[in-house]
Amino acid sequence: MGSKIEQLIDDIEIYIDNCKAVPLSKSNIVVNKEQMDEYLHELRMSTPDEIKRYQKIISNKEAILNDARSKAEALINEATIHTNKLISEHEIMQQAYAQANEVVTSATYQAQQILDTATMEANSVRSAAMQYMDDILNYLENLIVNASNNAVSNYENLLSGLNQYKDVIQSNRAELHPVEEDELSNVVLDNSETEEE
Q1: Is residue 184 over pLDDT 60?
Q2: How many domains does the chain have?
Q3: Using an 8 Å Cβ cutoff, are 49 and 7 in contact?
């Protein structure tokens, strides 16, 4: 099951796919600002929960390390008990001492291996969680930039279209009143004749 952020991103993509296209445009769409603001608000509210989720995953690193330490201590305790038993027997003192050293060395080596493996696994989980969050945030950033660019482009297209309609309307109005222009030119001619006399 995907995260809440992934579900919201899917919802936004479905919403964008279902938006109406701007007339005479293949790439521009009409977006309901309130609906888009609601989606973005939900994303902002969900992001902290997602980050907490991945912080919990990262905090499991400590649990893995603690478990490794417990196992290492158990091995060392077992080795110490075994060593004490061997040393307590006088007949085989030298042999017990050598064996005890081997057991302690082996237990220390195994404990270090467990700690190293646990550290690598915890770092891997942390790195994967951080990369996942970075990918989601990068996707959201690109989505918002594209939405902003589309909004600016739509606004400019709207202004351009309105200016074209205005020019057509002014031209049509001028064609409706050609008599007024003829009368104006006659008045100018009459005035010039009067001045010549």
Answers
A1: no
A2: 1
A3: no
